[in-house]
Amino acid sequence: MKELLSQLLSGDRPKVLLTRMFIAIVLVFVFIVWTSHKQIIQGIFDSRVDTVYQEIKQKRQEKYNTVVKEQVQSAYALINPDSVMVLEYRPININEYLDIVAFEGELPNRMSSNDLYGMAVSKVTPEYQSHVLGSPYSEEGSNGIVHTSRQMQAAYRYSCPVFNLNNIYSGMVVYMWYDSLPYTESGKADFKRRIMIYCNQNARTIGRAK
Prior knowledge:
By secondary structure, the protein is of the alpha+beta class. Helices cover about 50% and strands about 20% of the residues.
């Protein structure tokens, strides 16, 4: 390449020299493109793949948001609790924080729309341990709290775990009644069987969309 450029640039006449300089620039450009064409092609390919991946990711997230909203609204209408919530862990498979990604009805006392995100998780509570094993959890009494740093007092709370497509415990569905129990003592067993069916169906549908 050096020898070729030297021959092209040797000469006395300005017009000839200018022509040869132009040819030399073209040759240098062609040489650079030829030696780096694989990297250029790979860069274009990687950029396209990343764009397609982001588009797929966005569409999946939009579908997930729609599914969550539908499940929350359906549960609220069918079961008639004071609130229905879908909570999601982050980071995935580490579960340090909980976010309320959707809810219908009233928020618990002492909670506002500013308190929906970043709740620190306690993994030693009976609720968390029950969910990890794939079982629902219920609790009566005004001291009922979701396993986070923020209290969610209720007369009765029922929750079931959400497992995503990778079978990772990724969140939960929660039904809450704030002021009174949603059943009589004689109807308690039937109520729990019915609510377990509804909650598990909500959780499975949400998990398949994530």
